[in-house]
User: What shape does this take?
Amino acid sequence: MTIPLKQFSIKPYKLYNTIQNYEWGTKNESAFIPHFIGEEVEPNKPYAELWIGAHPKAPSKIEIGGARIPLNKVIEDHPEECLGEYVRNKFSGTFPFLLKVLSAANALSIQTHPNKVQAQRLHAKDPKNYPDDNHKPEIAIALDSLVALVGFKPVQSIRKQLEFLPELDELVGHGLVEEILKSVDPLMVENRIKRLYEIIMQRADEKERLAACIANIHKRLTEKNNRSLEEEQFLEQHKLYGADVGLLSFFFFNLVHLQQGQAIYTGAGVPHAYIKGNIIECMANSDNVVRAGLTNKFKDVETLLNIILYTFAECPVLNAGTGTGDVTYRTAAEEFEVVKNKKPGGLRKKCYSKDRPIVYLVTRGSLELHWNDDGTACTLKFSKGESFFIPAALSQFEIASNDDVEFFAVAIP
Assistant: This one.
């Protein structure tokens, strides 16, 4: 049913969001999301993600005429008012980004995401496992801290890891690891590492062979006194996932530790996994995931190896830090731009939508919102954990706070 324009007003709307209770989420006293939004914690229930946006799987809702209406439905009925002309045309009448609060007690699956062309092909071929035809560039911003795997390590770092992994010979066949360690040709080494990783992933279905390799590594590491961070993570995740091929990725991918305010950006094809922490995550409006390990869900090794990006380098960290003021996290994504605002002692600021929708999320303190509705001054107040939607057609508004406040604003660049 179409929502009448006389009921859909050009004004800010509080967002009522959905929590996803995936098993890797935080629980009980450590449950970050319910504490963040001021809800009671249900015992032993995992709280993994809070979805803020218009994804059809779990759209936020706004209140119109006393009823809570899914945001994607409102946008479908009123795209010009909600999205503005530019966004409506560029993104085919759909809301372009999905904002999340993510809280990981245990590792998410090692994964990568397809580009747009690959996503269209995968969705057409397998809509069950690839539920939409969009790509999924994403940024992860640490609210407190984040441990993550992101992208392939520099070649020399991988070679150093392989020096202390004799068990791989039994898994991949004798000779390949030795070639990597002894070759002086940089291109040959890169190609051999690619081949080594491909073989490892292809061995995922050879359960006994893989289990023997991981058991031997596990035995050696438990007897070792001084273990690297990668080796510690191998043992920690082994407790949860057993003989999972994803455990071997700790020796190939960058292990990153983010502090509050720091961020990482992952484009199409970049392998990654969030291990532990509480973050703000923003991505293109998609739920497409190609999984590689540390999961009991569907793994698509063939697709993974077709789309994975072999860039051997340290993971770039966006060092926004913990300072005050406005911090813009600039990425290559066309769908979103995230700005963190941290204002001790409050603020008062005029804002302009520039004919684009904006989503705000308050992470500390409270924020007042002022606007005019046909000459009438209107005010709404939002507290920590609350979020709101600014339709593109609301050209001007004001945000204010008398106390310390921190909030995120997400718009389309």
